[in-house]
Specification:
With 268 residues, this protein is α+β, with helices and mostly antiparallel strands. The chain is 19% helix and 27% strand. The protein has 2 domains: 102 residues, 2-Layer Sandwich (Alpha-Beta Plaits), CATH 3.30.70; 137 residues, Pseudouridine synthase I, catalytic domain, C-terminal subdomain (Alpha-Beta Plaits, 2-Layer Sandwich).
Length: 268
């Protein structure tokens, strides 16, 4: 049975997130309907990241096992013809036996986008967080430097509503605060993320940018492992899943068996 890896983009505004829910619309449910429409009913579309309600994706990935081979370009066109306008498959690739879109990911990249303006932006507010007063981007950048590396990020996550299986230690390879024409982007790359972790990190750094906290405060919060010490969880509309990282050949070999458990990772 052939397996395919799908690169998917979507506007999360109208969805409860990636994951199927019985009583709310989801991106995964729309993908399943699209497969049913092309005579592939009953398939499982396994996503790499369980993005939360209102979160967008430029580079979500998912794998699917089909009962017959498809020409990759034909499968891409067929799926997009049966998806709503706010979801699009960007690419279809053949995947090796044993490959899993989530468990064989080597990392993910997210961006949280903010627009800084005294006047309320009238257009596109579903794609960024509005910050009402000027911020010190350089101070935020310096404060964020302590987040790179392996740390216990318990202070920068919220309760996922179910027991965690892997604890709260994660590794971030890259953390950047980038000035843009309209505000700033907070971009982060890591091997895994906790529930709402990116949004809490962004909210905490914004406290520094607004001058409410000193630059060293972020390191203090990190060391505290206490969620009550950190900043607010920013709204989901500013968050985008940029990319899911894999080995060049999508090889599933050498995966840590400890990763093969369901937990709250990447439930942004």
């Amino acid at each position: 049975m052939p397996k395919y890896l799908l690169d998917i983009a979507y506007d999360g505004s109208n969805y409860s997130g990636w994951q199927w829910q019985d009583n709310a619309p989801s991106v995964q449910a729309q993908m399943l309907r699209a497969f049913a429409a092309i005579d592939c009913p009953g398939v499982k579309v396994e996503g790499a990241s369980r993005t939360d309600a209102g979160v967008h994706a430029i580079g979500q990935c998912a794998h699917v096992l089909l009962d017959r081979p498809w020409v990759e370009s034909s499968l891409l066109l067929a799926l997009n013809a049966n998806l709503p306008d706010d979801i699009a498959v960007q690419r279809v690739r053949a995947a090796p036996e044993g490959f899993h879109a989530r468990f064989h990911s080597r990392g993910k990249r997210y961006v949280y986008r903010c627009v800084v303006s005294r006047v309320r932006p009238a257009i596109g507010r579903q794609y960024f967080h509005w910050v009402r007063r000027s911020v010190d981007v350089a101070a935020m950048r310096r404060a964020a430097a302590c987040l790179v590396g392996q740390h216990d990020f318990a202070a920068f996550t919220t309760n996922p509503g179910y027991p965690r299986k892997r604890g709260t230690v994660r590794t971030l390879q890259r953390v950047h605060v980038i000035r843009t024409a309209r505000g700033f982007d907070f971009t982060v790359q890591g091997s895994g993320f906790l529930y709402n972790m990116v949004r809490v990190l962004a909210g905490s750094l914004l406290e520094v940018g607004n001058g409410n906290r000193p630059e060293g405060w972020i390191a203090e919060v990190l060391a505290s492992r206490d969620r009550r010490q950190a900043g607010a969880t920013l709204p989901p509309n500013g968050l985008f899943l940029l990319q899911v990282l894999y080995a060049p050949d999508l090889s599933p070999a050498g995966v840590d068996p400890g990763l093969l458990v369901a937990d709250d990772a990447d439930a942004e």
